[in-house]
Design goal:
This protein has 2 helices and 3 strands, in the order ββααβ. By secondary structure, it is of the alpha+beta class.
Length: about 60
């Protein structure tokens, strides 16, 4: 089972990148990498974003 999360669906107005992972932990690690490399998050700001919005992100995760 592969999990995916689309950046635009998660709240970015223009980014259409989709992250993938085999587990929620792997998916969130890939989302974190994307957030830091592309959107300018730092480790600290990413952790704040996830802690505030984790339930929202979980609702958007798709399985295939």
């Amino acid at each position: 089972m592969t999990l995916s999360l689309n950046c635009k669906e998660a709240g970015d107005p223009v980014c259409t990148h989709t992250m993938y992972g085999n587990t929620e932990e792997e998916l969130l690690a890939n989302a974190k990498k994307h957030g830091i490399e592309v959107h300018g998050y730092t480790e600290e700001t990413w952790n704040e974003e996830v802690s505030k919005n984790l339930d929202h992100f979980r609702k958007l995760i798709k399985t295939s």
